[in-house]
User: Which sequence fits this backbone?
């Protein structure tokens, strides 16, 4: 970046120093600003010692001031006309000593460098204290500076083109005047020819300089396009892949759009500069004209750069997704999905002028049975700024569907390789044409490969394929990825698992939780960094006990029923049975933890520590709770009300402290709801028992709630057994009632007085599916455990 441009981009504290520096008449700031490019290109140090060079630079300085004055006359800027005229008069004092002028300008340039060095030093010190995350911001700031430099060079080039045109017009006017005048004196004519030769030489040098500056401008543009297309856009596409599978990556396109548009605007201006050069050549040309030699090559280069930029600027901003899908990139036939494309070059005049068309799978891979699909719905939309919240140029397709073609695209016997439905990858394509100011370019964007299913039972397996592909593949055109899919390293795999919880519940997985899963996959290892997970071990269709089925079952359970508890860190979750015992045995009686079942898909259980008669710690547990249980009663209420029989048949909660030592009610209290003592809507077994209890007992309703309760002989022994045995005569379908109260206080208290024989009857009812409420099932299961 030019020195003056860097100075004007500095923070306020340094621009104030700049104002103080130029608060004098030796070199006015206006002259420094408008002639900045020319001033910085001259050899002032040599001119300070070389009188002839100093005089030549002095003369060119005055000529440049004349050009600036003419410019402000055309722009009708009266104040700047006055200032430039005054500056030129002041510089006349250097006519006898131009070396003094060179020394003056040299001194100012040196002071400017001191200001820049001071600013750079502060920036370097700050950089040393910046964390790794901020380095991306630094990279973006560097790119911003390069963009500002590009814009400034274009502005300088506008001034250069204006000066070139002025110079050519001066030559043309003098030459046309000479041709109309009849010069008789041969010496005069010879002198005029010599003057014209000097003018044409000067014009030639100016054209060469202009072409050189244009080439440098194209070089800078080429470098920026390389950064944008090969680095920034590629990194965004990778972030988008990871964001599709839950990573918290930034996928906003506003900054990229700003950069792409800036470069495109500059390239269109370069094309205008080249067009202006063509006009000037048509008016004045000569032998070995550099414009005629170099302009065609430069025109081709500028057009190529612009087309490359345009072709990379059309992207899929929001990947295909169904409203109720498990995640993006899983589509179902005959179910609507949405997808959004965006043009990163934003020209308001192009609003609604570019039509985008949608199509599927241009070329089917050579795989036996590979399916083909047709896209149905509104397949053509115009890029517009109305459908974008931030005013981007987008085409938002919201009502597309897929329908399978009758004959598969792969054909018969094309290849012995075959893929399952959820391993097939398909690409959706988007086409449009950019036409503006004589530039016409066909643009194409494509989605990340999607998995297409025909029924909801395939969603789990399809989402596993999406996870695996976007975790491991950076080639978003590789639709045969699963013919030979690579293994994932444990660091990659563990991070992806954490993303699933993070995106679903706003809380990812801890190192301890990930270590438990690594132990499940690889067994006990000193370090897991070099371990790898194969696709077949993660998820393979028709294999019900894969890691993914187990993990996804837990994820669904947490998202549906346990999200608040998980987000608050109350569920330890992923902990092995061995680790569970080692943790609890070191704690006080009643300490418990919540963990996911390793054997029951989508199950969660709790374990607690008790003290044996000999004072030894003993870990106890209950059978896992699944969605069948949790859809009837919230898990925190199960924890609140869970009780077991203690000495003398007194019910007591064994759950006192959530690991490591938080009182249960302190941990879960905010989730509790008011308990209901109503007997309505209980399961048939509960209702039958309570009716029998009320018929055979003289107790008050308060006594039935457990206050002052005594063992009841009326319900023990044969009488109770006969009452409960009568339940077995009812058909199972008549014993099951829906929408029953999930927790029955009366049964919980009174059922502790059953004899073991009665629990056998309850067990039989549970086995037949006749007993459906929490109390019957979990009172029974607590005895089993």
Assistant:
């Amino acid at each position: 970046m030019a020195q003056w441009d860097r100075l004007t981009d500095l923070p306020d504290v340094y621009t104030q120093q700049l104002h103080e520096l130029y608060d004098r008449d030796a070199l006015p700031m206006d002259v420094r600003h408008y002639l900045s490019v020319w001033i910085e290109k001259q050899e002032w140090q040599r001119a300070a010692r070389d009188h002839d060079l100093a005089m030549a630079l002095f003369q060119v300085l005055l000529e440049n001031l004349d050009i600036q004055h003419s410019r402000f006359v055309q722009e009708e800027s009266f104040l700047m006309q006055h200032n430039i005229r005054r500056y030129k008069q002041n510089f006349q004092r250097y006519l006898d000593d131009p070396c003094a002028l060179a020394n003056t300008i040299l001194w100012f340039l040196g002071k400017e460098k001191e200001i820049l060095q001071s600013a750079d030093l502060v920036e370097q010190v700050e950089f040393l204290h910046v964390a790794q995350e901020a380095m991306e911001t630094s990279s973006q700031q560097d790119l911003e500076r390069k963009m500002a430099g590009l814009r400034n060079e274009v502005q300088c080039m506008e001034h250069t083109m204006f000066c070139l045109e002025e110079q050519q017009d001066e030559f043309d006017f003098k030459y046309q005047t000479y041709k109309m005048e009849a010069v008789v004196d041969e010496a005069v004519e010879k002198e005029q020819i010599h003057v014209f030769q000097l003018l044409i030489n000067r014009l030639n040098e100016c054209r060469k300089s202009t072409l050189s500056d244009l080439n440098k401008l194209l070089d800078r543009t080429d470098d920026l396009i390389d950064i944008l297309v090969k680095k920034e856009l590629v990194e965004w596409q990778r972030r988008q892949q990871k964001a599709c599978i839950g990573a918290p990556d930034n996928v906003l396109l506003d900054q990229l759009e700003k950069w792409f548009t800036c470069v495109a605007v500059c390239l269109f201006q370069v094309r205008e500069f080249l067009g202006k050069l063509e006009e000037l050549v048509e008016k004045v040309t000569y032998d070995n004209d550099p414009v005629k030699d170099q302009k065609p090559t430069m025109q081709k280069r500028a057009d190529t750069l612009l087309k490359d930029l345009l072709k990379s600027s059309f992207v899929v901003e929001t990947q295909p997704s169904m409203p109720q899908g498990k995640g993006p990139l899983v589509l179902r036939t005959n179910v609507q999905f949405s997808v959004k494309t965006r043009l990163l070059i934003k020209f308001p005049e192009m609003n609604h002028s570019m039509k985008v068309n949608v199509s599927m799978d241009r070329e089917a891979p050579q795989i036996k049975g590979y399916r083909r699909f047709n896209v149905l719905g509104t397949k053509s939309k115009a890029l517009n700024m109305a459908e974008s919240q931030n005013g981007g140029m987008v085409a938002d397709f919201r009502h597309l569907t897929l329908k399978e073609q009758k004959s598969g695209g792969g054909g018969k016997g094309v290849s012995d390789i075959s893929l399952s439905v959820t391993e097939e990858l398909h690409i959706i394509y988007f086409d449009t044409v950019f036409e503006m100011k004589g530039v016409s370019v066909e643009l194409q964007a494509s989605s990340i490969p999607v998995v297409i299913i025909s029924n909801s039972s395939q969603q789990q397996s399809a989402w596993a394929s999406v996870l695996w592909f976007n975790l491991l593949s950076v080639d978003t055109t590789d639709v045969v990825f699963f013919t030979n899919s690579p293994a994932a390293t444990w660091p990659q795999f563990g991070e992806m698992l954490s993303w699933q919880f993070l995106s679903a519940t706003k809380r990812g997985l801890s190192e301890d939780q990930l270590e438990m899963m690594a132990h499940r996959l690889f067994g006990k290892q000193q370090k897991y960094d070099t371990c790898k997970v194969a696709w077949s071990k993660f998820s393979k269709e028709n294999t019900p006990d894969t890691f993914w089925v187990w993990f996804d079952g837990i994820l669904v359970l947490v998202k549906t029923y346990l999200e608040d508890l998980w987000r608050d860190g109350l569920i330890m979750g992923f902990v092995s049975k061995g680790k569970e015992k080692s943790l609890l045995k070191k704690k006080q009686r009643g300490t418990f933890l919540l963990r996911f079942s390793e054997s029951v898909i989508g199950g969660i259980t709790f374990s607690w520590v008790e003290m044996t008669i000999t004072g030894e710690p003993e870990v106890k547990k209950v059978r896992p709770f699944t969605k069948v249980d949790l859809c009837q009663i919230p898990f925190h209420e199960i924890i609140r009300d869970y009780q077991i029989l203690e000495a003398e048949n007194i019910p007591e909660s064994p759950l006192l402290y959530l690991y490591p030592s938080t009182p249960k009610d302190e941990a879960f209290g905010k989730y509790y709801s008011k308990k209901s003592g109503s007997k309505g809507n209980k399961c048939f077994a509960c209702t039958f028992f309570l009716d029998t209890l009320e018929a055979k007992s003289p107790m008050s309703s308060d006594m039935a709630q457990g206050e002052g309760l005594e063992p009841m002989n009326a319900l023990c022994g044969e009488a109770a057994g006969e009452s409960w045995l009568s339940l077995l005569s009812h058909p199972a379908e008549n014993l099951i009632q829906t929408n029953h109260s999930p927790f029955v206080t009366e049964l919980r208290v009174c059922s502790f007085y059953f004899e073991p024989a009665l629990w056998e009857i309850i067990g039989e009812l549970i086995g037949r599916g006749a007993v459906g409420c929490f109390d019957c099932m979990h009172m029974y299961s607590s005895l089993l455990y």
Summary: The chain has a mean pLDDT of 81. The CA atoms of residues 147 and 262 lie 7 Å apart.
